[in-house]
Amino acid sequence: MQVLLIEDSALLREAIMEVLSHASLNFKHVATTQADAIALLDKETFDFMIVDIELAQGNGFEVIKHVMQPDYPFTPPIAMILTNHAHPHYRQRAKDLGVKYFFDKSMDFDSAIDTIEEEAAKFTL
């Protein structure tokens, strides 16, 4: 499974990649800003993207909106939001955008990792 990790915290990026190092996935690229993420998504295909809402510049919702546009050149990757901003209105906005998974970093990190592993297993079958 080809993954784009969109997260501005170096510590969290390293933790996610370390915890998932045994899984059948490839962190193809990492982006820390909205612009970097969109540029990568316009050049290459990804199966899955892990998206933080608040980025160093811009936000994850705009990245998700970009890949959901009718003229997006590839099949949109499965989207997971992993955020510290798990407010109900953000959850609803994510749902409205077609985000498949939404997790709170502080409360649901283990569940998010389990879900990523489950998605990765689907690609090895």
Concise structural overview:
Keywords: Phosphoprotein. This protein has five helices and five strands.
Please characterize this protein's 3D structure.
- Helix 2 packs parallel to helix 3.
- The protein is α/β, with parallel strands linked by helices.
- Helices cover 46% and strands 20% of the residues.
Could you name the key traits of this structure?
125 residues, alpha/beta, Rossmann fold, five-stranded parallel beta sheet, 5 helices, Response regulatory domain-containing protein
How helical, in percent, are the residues? 40-55%
Structural class determined from secondary elements: alpha/beta
* CATH hierarchy, class: Alpha Beta
Please outline the major beta sheet.
5 strands, parallel
Number of strands: 5
Total helical segments: 5
The coarse silhouette is: globular
Radius of gyration over all CA atoms, rounded: 13 Å
Strand order of the largest sheet: 2-1-3-4-5
What CATH architecture do you see? 3-Layer(aba) Sandwich
Number of domains: 1
Model regions low in confidence, pLDDT < 50 over at least 5 residues: none
Give the terminus-to-terminus CA distance. Answer: 11 Å
Instruction: Return the average pLDDT rounded to an integer.
Output: 94
InterPro entries: Bact_response_regulator, CheY-like_superfamily, Sig_transdc_resp-reg_receiver
Organism: Methyloradius palustris
Pfam families: Response_reg (PF00072)
Keywords: Phosphoprotein
